[in-house]
Amino acid sequence: MMLLLNAHAIETMRFCNLNCCHISEHEALIISLVRGMQHLRPEMVQGAIALVIDDDQIPALIENLSALANAMTQAGILPAQMLR
């Protein structure tokens, strides 16, 4: 999945250490896409993905995000909705 998100390696994807109390922009993107697979209309998630990767890679990423979201839902660990 990370290969699809950063296919052109334009920038380095950064992730926080496990002891870190905040998340990086890349982690926030992935969390919101995974959550969106369960709570948003598919075209909304696809539109967000289209801003990040090439169109020909969208189906593979949607398939992977959907599988991850389903597994997280079954395990009871799907990220909660963010408070505003």
Question: How would you describe the overall organization of this protein?
Answer:
The chain is mainly α. It contains four helices and no strands. It has helices at 2-5, 25-39, 42-50, 58-75. The longest helix has 18 residues, at 58-75. It is globular and about 35 Å long. The mean pLDDT is 79.
Average pLDDT works out at 79
| Low-confidence spans | none
What is the number of E strands?
A: 0
Rg from Cα? 13 Å
- Give the SSE order as H and E letters: HHHH
Structural class: mainly alpha
What's the helical proportion of residues? 40-55%
Question: How much β-strand is present in the residues?
Answer: under 5%
Please tally the helical runs, counting DSSP H or I stretches of 4 or more residues. 4
Biggest pleated-sheet summary: none
Distance between the termini: 28 Å
Write down the overall geometry.
Answer: globular
Assembly type of the chains comes to single chain
Helix and strand arrangement:
Elements: H1 2-5, H2 25-39, H3 42-50, H4 58-75
Helix pairs in contact: 2-4
Concise structural overview:
The protein has 84 residues and is mainly alpha-helical.
For this entry, give a set of tags:
84 residues, mainly alpha, 4 helices, globular
